[in-house]
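Re: weekly structure request thread

Next one in the queue (221 aa):
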Amino acid sequence: MINSRIILIFLFLTDSIAYAQKNQSELTPIDKVVYVCTYQLDYLRDSKDQESRRSEKMVLFIGKSVSKFQSLNAYIKDTINWNRKTDDMALMLAKIKGKSSRFAFNIYKNYPEGEISTTDRIYSDNFIYNEPLQLLDWEMTDDTTTYLGYHCQKATTYYAGRNYEAWFTSEIPISEGPYKFNGLPGLIVKIKDTRNHYSFELISFVKSNEQYSLFFGKGII
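Done, posted below.
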């Protein structure tokens, strides 16, 4: 099982590799990682087939002004592949194997400023598209609960053709969340659409002490 400490190790490796190879690097440092959030994604591959439900871990890197969201398995795989290009620490990485991921996208909020940049990969082709960073229109409710020891409040919104219910905590006053969700006065710890096709649940939250860089790479890391 990949835990938060392993993620921090991979952040260190990415930092070391990119700066050691900076003249040839395809990676651009755009911020410092302040927090690392790991979410459990449960989803239906086929909305008409309940037996098609799958799960995967996703990771949200939160910087001072930019955030990045992607599959944890994809992040590990890309880091290993990038490391193989440099022949650095190959023995160590060979012992940490990531599974394949259905999700190749990387979502950068507020990069460039005021925009969301999404990089993705189809077969061997990488591409990028940008859209305005817009705060979602949330409706607050009086419902509260406790999750992972945090006091949480419920809010609802409509996004991309679906109604969503979210739980956020003002004890972590960061207006962030998984995927493209944002705009609440605290970190989103749980969110799902009302048809229960997609749900995200926070499973770990770690402060990284701003030691590692957040990189932008077209289709990688």
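The radius of gyration is 17 Å. The chain has two domains: 2-134+204-218, 139-196.
Next request, please.
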